[in-house]
Amino acid sequence: xxxxPLVISEQKTAVVYGVPTQLVCTAFSSRILxxxxxxxxxxxxxxxxxxxxxxxxxxxxxxTKVLLxxxxxxxxxxxxxxxxxxxxxxxxxxxxxRPGHEGREHGGDEDPEEGDTDTPDKLLRxxxxxxxxxxxxxxxxxxxxxxGVLTLLEILALNKIKEEDKKESVKLLQVIANSGRKYKExxxxxxxxxxxxxxxxxxxxxxxxxxxxVLLDSLIHGNPKYQNQVYKGLIxxxxxxxxxxxxxxxxxxxxxxxxxxxxxxxxxxxxLKLLCTMHLEVQYEAIELIKDLVNYDVCPALLKGLVALxxxxxxxxxxxxxxxxxxxxxxxxxxxxxxFLQQAAAAKAIGILARHNTTxxxxxxxxxxxxxxxxxxxxxxxxxxxxxxxxxxxYFVQLFPVVEENVRKTMGEELYKLFLSNAExxxxxxxxxxxxxxxxxxxxxTRVLHLSGLxxxxxxxxxxxxxxxxxxxxxxxxxxxxxxxx
Length: 486
Fold this sequence. Notes:
Blueprint: E1 8-16, E2 19-27, E3 31-37, E4 45-50, E5 62-68, H1 73-89, E6 103-107, H2 120-132, H3 137-145, H4 148-157, H5 163-177, H6 181-189, H7 192-202, H8 206-220, H9 227-237, H10 243-260, H11 266-273, H12 280-293, H13 299-308, H14 315-324, H15 329-356, H16 358-365, H17 369-377, H18 383-399, H19 401-411, H20 413-421, H21 432-439, H22 446-452, H23 454-463, H24 468-483
Parallel strand pairs: 3-6
Antiparallel strand pairs: 1-2, 2-3, 4-5, 4-6
């Protein structure tokens, strides 16, 4: 009677992504060699050893070591997933071998002498085949057990990994996040929000950034435990240097804001600073978010900030200007350009808010918005500021008779007629003296509004009729403001 063979080997061939692929499994006395190749020869060789078994799916139970070939994170992830798959198909669990009794070795098809034949993105797509398959839950659990989430997040931070490879990592994280609430929590517990947000800010591919937005949108839905973490991560993205990342973060913030229902105090300053952008798509999304934020408790701070931007402070740019050159008017305007862009965007946003909600328009009157709009109309260094401020002022003049009366008195009949005839193109028809009249105006309708009783109704809008102490305090503050000299 013949004895049991010392070496048991099985071989299969299949077509993967249109390429014939060979799989060879060979069982030795203390090792199992699994070799996958599309080249017909051995390439990368990885050794796997079982570690202590744990019930925490975020901790790996297999340790990998590259023996031959390139040592890259996707190689480790693909190897562990392949071993998990083969073990399942053999009716085993991937952590069943006892330490010291059985290890595994995996041979890939990358030839170390011929360069990178099988790129990481192909390996990641192969993992995606397992995770996206029907009844793939067991493969997903195995992938998480071997530290799949941490590896995918690590790939996003590696400089040597190609953008395409990182995009595949993001897609795998999407698959994991869409598998359920506990998987979203696992990603967040692995410091995933920070890693994903940083990658979105640094990515150079708009297509990849859009995939990241899909992932962040998934993490904000159905994730009550960590939705605030995602929300804060999106706010932290706003000051980044990538316009596309800013645009996508603003879009996702609108969704997140509606889900969370409360606001973070830092959001006002972050959104207002974005109005200085030269990218119109970012400015548009910022104004759309502002339209949503006025429905929350940050509304007073938001309106006050918008009105303040109509009269820029050049202190922030004075140091920069002196470092460049102090006698160049061209460079001076370049240094001030972000503030002028912010001024124009603020005037535009105020007009949009006023047309959308008359109550907001009334409240901004108490913030001296008319004085600030006329000052912006006198900014001959930036025509768009003049244009946007003029259009917004036109609406206030049409809406409030008291504004019409004060604006007419300040402008004078000739300038006022030019304003009424064509507010949008007024900046092209005024001379330097008229521009100075607008820039140095002393319009103040606060006293008239206070005497008319309009202010109390607006205070009720924010604080409610029952909170008399807060209303009295604000009213007292307004009286002091009216009494101050212009």
